[in-house]
Write a structure and sequence with these properties.
The protein is an alpha/beta fold and 570 residues long. It has 4 domains: 159 residues, PAS domain (Beta-Lactamase), CATH 3.30.450; 78 residues, Helix Hairpins, CATH 1.10.287; 151 residues, Heat Shock Protein 90; 145 residues, Response regulator (Rossmann fold). It is 48% helix and 20% strand. Strands 6, 7, 8, 9, 10, 11 and 12 form a 7-stranded mixed beta sheet that branches. Strands 2-1-5-4-3 form a 5-stranded antiparallel beta sheet, with helices on both faces. A 5-stranded parallel beta sheet has the order 14-13-15-16-17, sandwiched between helices. A hairpin with a 5-residue loop joins strand 3 and strand 4. Helix 6 packs across helix 7 and helix 16 packs parallel to helix 17. The longest helix is centred in the N-terminal third of the chain and has 51 residues. 29% of the residues are buried.
Length: 570
């Protein structure tokens, strides 16, 4: 190898590997001893290849021999580095450079050395091909070697085996794929578990509601027993929802629908819903009036869920005859804080730090108050997903203040209502003189079928047809053309969504509103169902009033072709 190339190689390598040494010290080392030269050229940890200006190998160190299996004598003055690289990678590099520079770059050493020849130090991933045909990934840096007049006299390639990093990357990719698969399986499990738990609850709560309002009315003793069944059933449903919410949040699968929403409207709804609980517990509750109609950017359903959880806790853990006060105030021009203040026992600092831990009830496990230790954890996660914040301040013997902060939003543009108000439930039922209307219920669960049969038996203006699977339901729909169809999702044979698609594609049945009634109650299930074209998506257990109201809206739509509720929403 020409001496000037050798000297340039040593200089470049020493510079690359000795950045911690001052320039004066580096020159002193190079001039006074040949030990550094020998250490570099004989390094077994790096492949060091030097070429002349045409790309023909002039130096092939011990590391290159060890990695690639060639002896220096087999390659020096005979081949260039591109000959021991994966040819497809060399071709791809040439094509990428050609596209970047809008000029043709010849595959081969020119493609490898192009940037270095223009004074740009380059490093890249490539695959080395060994003498025995085996391959391994490497990281290679390439630098141009220059003489005293800045003319290129060759190129230096320093390579390191990249197998370990590539294996780690492959393992990480596989681990991420496995984690994603596990998340999907978890999501499917949650959806399935929700369905399996809700199905028996549907029968329990549905028939208990029928017994409660049946004729003749239950005796006081029976009424007390029914109340216990309903109380336990609705509490179990709440527990199922909280556990599923928490699991869904932690798996990253919870979807939110964030949009500008009226904080005043939600607070009024919460007030209406929570006041009976407060009265029953002997707690005075006060909502401070809003001076300004604020809007926040959040998911309306989830904000209500969080506020109701805070309000319910403030009532449950208050003192006898205590009070709960709800206030709002601006924190910044873009942020509002809602505070729920109670007059309970308060929490000491050591309990405050445990407050948002799952299933930790802070010593209340033995109390008479029902609870799971999940509600606050879910609330915290939900608020954070909505880019908000939740916190608490507490003084023992005085009470606690739980607060949430949300981002303010501008009031959305309202569309002028051009339609009349929709018929109320009572108005719809007053149409006793109207022609008998038909409801088709497609359901494979006999208990659910019996429940809806008894509900429709209370409607003298309606008759019920039933089918145990989607195929039979489609046949009955085509034959009888019912005004409304109620469809379960999980059916034997074809699913409710598949059956809906067939009905929609048939001109004879395409106009019939179809209500989904399913135990698949996860948010993504509801979203999927509504996207498929269901008129409404109802979840089990059946809430009788909700079912009847949705049925009335569907019947009105069947008569007029107008979905008044949708028009009011939009």
């Amino acid at each position: 190898m020409p001496q000037k190339i050798r000297d340039s190689v040593i200089s470049n390598i020493a510079a690359a590997m000795g950045e911690g040494i001052t320039e004066l010290r580096r020159q002193e080392v190079l001039l006074k001893t040949g030990a550094l030269q020998n250490a570099i050229l004989n390094s077994a940890n790096f492949s060091i290849i030097a070429t002349d200006e045409k790309g023909i190998i002039q130096l092939f160190n011990i590391g290159a021999e060890r990695m690639l299996g060639y002896q220096a004598a087999e390659v020096v003055n005979k081949i260039n580095p591109s000959d021991i690289h994966d040819p497809q990678e060399v071709m791809a590099r040439a094509q990428a450079l050609s596209a970047e520079l809008s000029t043709a770059i010849t595959p081969g050493f020119e493609a490898l050395a192009y940037k270095a020849s223009r004074g740009i130090e380059d490093s890249y991933d490539l695959t080395y091909i060994c003498k025995d045909g085996s391959r391994f990934p490497a990281i290679v840096s390439i630098t141009a070697l220059r003489d005293d007049y800045d003319g290129i006299i060759g190129y230096l390639l320093i390579g390191a085996d990249n197998s370990v990093r590539k294996q780690v990357e492959a393992d990480l990719t596989n681990a991420m794929a496995a984690a994603e698969k596990a998340n999907l399986a978890k999501s499917d499990f949650l959806s399935s578990m929700s369905h399996e738990l809700r199905s028996p609850l549907n029968a329990i709560l549905g028939f208990a509601q029928l017994m409660e309002s049946g004729s003749p009315l239950p005796t006081p003793t029976q009424k007390a027993s029914i109340d216990q069944i309903l109380h336990a059933g609705w509490y179990l449903l709440e527990l199922i929802n909280q556990i599923l919410d928490l699991a869904l949040i932690e798996s990253g699968k919870l979807s939110l629908s964030q949009e500008p929403m009226s904080l005043v409207d939600v607070m009024l709804e919460c007030q209406t819903m929570i006041e009976p609980q407060a009265q029953k517990s002997g707690i005075r509750i006060r909502f401070a009036p809003f001076e300004i109609h604020y809007f926040v950017n959040a998911d309306r359903t989830r904000v209500k869920q969080v506020l109701l959880n805070l309000l319910s806790n403030a009532i449950k853990y208050n003192r006898v005859g205590g009070t709960v006060e709800v206030t709002c105030r601006l924190i910044t021009a873009k942020r509002i804080r809602i505070c729920v203040r109670d007059t309970g026992e308060g929490l000491p600092p050591e309990k405050l730090v445990q407050l948002f831990q799952p299933f930790n009830r802070l010593g209340q496990e033995a109390s008479a108050e029902e609870g799971t230790g999940i509600g606050l954890v879910v609330s915290k996660r939900l608020v954070e997903l909505m880019e908000g914040e939740i916190g608490v301040e507490s003084v023992v013997g005085v009470g606690s203040v739980f607060w949430i902060e949300l981002n303010l939003a501008t009031e959305p543009q309202q569309l002028a209502a051009s339609m009349d108000e929709p018929l109320t439930l009572l108005q719809a039922r007053a149409h006793q003189g109207a022609a008998l209307r038909t409801l088709l219920y497609v359901e494979d669960n006999r208990a659910n079928m019996q429940l809806v049969e008894q509900l429709i038996a209370r409607r003298p203006d309606m008759r019920l047809l039933s089918a145990g699977d989607g195929t039979r339901g489609i046949a009955l729909a085509r034959t009888h053309l019912p005004e409304v169809i109620v469809m379960d999702i999980n059916l034997p044979g074809i699913s409710g969504i598949q059956a809906l698609k067939i009905l929609r594609e048939d001109p004879v049945t395409a106009h019939i509103p179809v209500l989904a009634l399913s135990a698949n109650a996860m948010p993504h299930d509801i979203k999927k169902g509504l996207a498929a074209g269901f008129f409404r998506y109802l979840t089990k257990p059946i809430k009788v009033n909700e079912f009847m109201e949705a049925l009335d809206l569907a019947l009105e739509f069947a008569e007029t072709g107008i979905d008044n509720e949708t028009q009011l929403i939009t």
